[in-house]
Hints:
The structure holds 2 protein chains of 2 kinds. Chain A is mostly helical.
Amino acid sequence: MDMSSKRIKGNANLRRGLGSKTTDSDKIMEDPPAGDWLALRSDQLLKWIDDAVYNAAETTGMREVVDRVTRPIFNYAQRFSPHPLHFGIMCCAIEMGQASAPDHDIDRLGLVYRSSPRQCDVLIVNGPVCEKLRPKLKTLYEQMPEPKWVIAMGECAISGGPYWDSYSVVAGADTFMPVDVYIPGCPVRPEALMHGFLTLQKKIREKEPGMFLRR
Amino acid sequence: MSLFSFCKAMAEWTADYMLIPVFNFQAGLFPPFSNPAGDIADWLETDGGLNTLAWLFAVNIAFAIGMTNLIIVIHLERKIAARIQDRRGPMLSLRSFRELGEDLAGNSPSWRFKQNYAGIGILQNMADGIKAITKELIIPAKADKFLFTMGPIIFISSSVFLLVLFPLSDRFAASSAPAGLMVIMAAFSIAPIGVLTSGWASNNKYSMIGGMRSAAQLMSYEIPLLLSMAGVFLLAGSFDPVTIVEQQQQSTWFFGLPMWNFIPQFIGFIVFMICILAEVERVPFDLPEAEAELVEGWTTEYSGIRYMLFLAAEYIRGFAGAAVCTILFLGGWAGPWPVPPEVWFLLKVYLILIFWIFIRWTVPRIRTDQILELGWKKLLPLSLINILIVIFMVEIYPYLSDTLTLLPEVF
Lengths: 215, 411
């Protein structure tokens, strides 16, 4: 799933890159939706200012300049502090716990398991997702704040595993949510989970730019 | 030379060479019209203007020192926790900046996972903090938007306010109010309002329970906390931190050693340590944010920088609590000569903090009814006993000893 094109909304011309060449002042400062910006509600005004700043930064090329500096810094921070959701489904969750234990200390990678999805970056799907769990898991994914990633841990989360033809088990987590990293194994070894997080780091560095003005 | 006189000199230099010329220049630009810049330049030459500027510098220095300590405390917490559990803890090293340099320069990326994770991990805090800035700020659809944003502001600002209130030594103080410790305790007790506000405004049952628990706990532990401090105030006869520390140095026992307050008021010291632990909501009193029962308690719905600032504010409160404990019971900044007093103060504060970290990773959490029972039935009577002992020491014992020495002459 191409996340970067999904995030940039707003003017279609600007999205296609035509905006950086226009010098039309209408493009830089768009008219407010209600006609008179003094009559706007405060949240509408904030949104209008937000749009105006974004469009001005986009058309003048300021956004690329700022991004060139901030993107590596934000990306560095994002990939070196992944906070996964403390959520276990089946036997891979035992291995996830084992990865935090002294032998395979996954805290070295900066992982802190948080219980609330609002405070997480990574959702680890560690087990077969049955039909009853699917809406809850989808809700958990939607409750997480934006830049967020999903790791499918183990055969069951990848394709349904041994339950692939069961009447109640979903055939893989990627049938209903975007999955970034697949870790095969039944169950996944803690070393493999650590390798999965390093792979996610690689993916964040290459694919997910941490932008300053993001849409 | 005290911090304030240093800041006063800095303010004079800044005003003379940087601010007043600029304001005078601005005032001279449009002479026919009235211009506030000239008034500001005149005000900066007066004593009041210079003092205001000096206070600004002093407060900023205290704030910077507090924030540096905050980073060190969080790092210590994670590393000591890891060593207690026979792990290594965060290991993000300075060599990971090489990747950052490559990205900034636009070179092709290289992968050195082993080198990135071969340090002491002090950069982990930096990565967590910057990441929190880039995260989305979610306000739940049915939440009370105004209170949802006000709750963190109340909690965090009252915690950061604590940083400038306690002195690092008698010469290094951003604020030296005569009622210093009372102001600190007042700032400590603003936080329950913020906690209750954010717990209620989230419109989440777990947040609500966490907020209510927090309010109940903080209110019930405030009373024994202040009563155990009252003994120290009676002994010193003042609320001023400087006076309290001087009194502890002046009273001596065997071999002329200073009798710090934790020796005569041992009960008060124990009660204070337990109460301040509950006041800053650390294990075993972290019921409001119990991870297993309440999903992170009153911070459940907070994401991004708000959640990270909540976390930081708790550590700031912990640092301030340890500083108050040091001033009241451990002799403050007093110590043998070659080490400066500020370093002695920080050493004692870090001793208490490391003791708390050890408690956190060895002791389980206690139940809600047990926590209230401990507060009302055990700590409150103990703190009253402590006050009785101090009253005996201060008021009755001197007269009693006089009478006893006079007795042979009478008979």
